[in-house]
Amino acid sequence: MRFDELRNEQKSLGKLIPKASPEERAELLKKAEQLKGDVKAAEAEQNEADEAAKRLLLQLGNIVHTDVPVGGEEDFTVLETHGTIRDFAAEGFEPKDHLELGESLGAIDVERGAKVSGSRFYYLTGVGALLELALVNAAIAQATEAGFIPMLTPALVRPRAMEGTGFLGQAAENVYHLEKDDYYLVGTSEVPLAAYHMDEIIDADKLPLRYAGFSPCFRREAGTYGKDTRGIFRVHQFDKVEMFSYVAPEEAEAEHQRLLEWEKQWLTSLELPFQVIDVATGDLGSSASRKFDCEAWIPTQGKYRELTSASNCDGFQARRLSIRYRDGKKTAPLSTLNGTLCAVPRTIVAILENHQQADGSVRVPAALRPYLGGREVLEPIAK
RNA sequence: GGAGGCGUCGCCUAGUCCGGUCUAUGGCGCCGCACUGCUAAUGCGGUUUGGGGCUUACCCCCCAUCGAGGGUUCAAAUCCCUCCGCCUCCGCCA
């Protein structure tokens, strides 16, 4: 018999006991005692089934949008191209890579980063440190202007937050875990921003909710040995400004486009040439139904590389984190979306390489100057 | 790190000592209706969430839910254990 039926029987029996005469009472107690075992067994069975269903549900990835190109990492579709790639040959000099530039500007120190913390760690020094602060301030200013609420978030989170955002699936090997305290180091503020409204029901008229998170990001970069080993393109720790939206499901696709527009606005203001790609199915991860990346041109690599990424997670994270919205009488999972505004090291790479000049100096894009004390050019320092 | 207090269906709150009469009290807010030139006030009703049954739908019925999970018991908001969070005091610390 089902648990709720047995339980109903047990409850009605329980109501009779206090009122019963002594001899009736003994009889009832005997019956109740026998029922106890049945109830317990049925409950255990129900719990087991619930657990199994939950486990299976957590293994499911999001459903991919039908327009997403099918294939692996290389099978993306280019949607748009913006800006002009510089012809350094025509300008009469060979472009230096970001590390060479960064070192001569006194902006980047990877040697001491490696000495202190190991490979893929770095120091931003002098003008490099100022450049990060300028980028972060400019990005937060743009997001705030667009209506995002600025947020400084925890970088250590509980397992539930990590699991709920979908980072303990196939991406788990890239996540740092503090075993002693069972904390995870977030790889993006998407995690604390999504978990922010965990277990909440949000009134429909409060949507959309938009947050601009700033946090350090930690990535183990397991499985990327030998990839992007020079400089600060791929590192274990960096800072990032991230956009995060909670919207009604029917608004998700439009919001995805809006996030992309804000990313394009940002890269355009930095005067970087870039393309927008529709990421292929094999490179989506478990939580996104569709992902648009903005890739900036990196002169010394001769190709476009990912700077920002905007994902539509639909109800995937909301279901796992139990975040719903109330529209009239009905409550239903809402949709969550996230998009990079500024991942600092990669943005620095792109700025240094694209805006370098023949004498080794780097031109500061106009939009960034107010955040760098009006500085127009970063000059190499004497050794 | 040490000591103590606390966590109740939006918010506040009764109930916990002493288990069954809890189908969780009352107030606020909110929603609906009534009434009144309008507003206000007043009256009546409703107002956690999830699952299941019935149903065109509504209604209604059942189960779970008193921070979470275990345990004791015929029976747990109430007793016991573990964990989480908040508050107060002490210690330490940017």
Provide a concise account of the structure shown.
This protein is α+β, with helices and mostly antiparallel strands and 383 residues long.
Q: Please, could you describe this protein's structure?
A:
- The protein is α+β, with helices and mostly antiparallel strands and 383 residues long.
- The chain has two domains: 3-59, no CATH class; 77-378, Bira Bifunctional Protein, Domain 2 (BirA Bifunctional Protein, domain 2, 2-Layer Sandwich).
- It has eleven helices and 18 strands.
- It has helices at 3-16, 22-59, 88-91, 98-104, 110-117, 127-145, 159-165, 190-195, 252-269, 316-321, 344-354; strands at residues 77-82, 108-109, 123-124, 149-152, 156-157, 176-178, 183-185, 201-203, 209-218, 237-247, 274-278, 290-298, 303-312, 324-327, 330-333, 335-343, 362-363, 377-378.
- It has an eight-stranded mixed β-sheet. The protein has a three-stranded antiparallel β-sheet with strand order 5-7-6. A three-stranded mixed β-sheet has the order 8-14-15, with no helix packed on it.
- Strand 12 (290-298) and strand 13 (303-312) form a beta hairpin.
- The chain is elongated, with a radius of gyration of 27 Å.
- The relative contact order is 0.16.
- The model has no long low-confidence stretch (mean pLDDT 91).
- The chain binds one RNA strand of 94 nucleotides through helix 1 and helix 2.
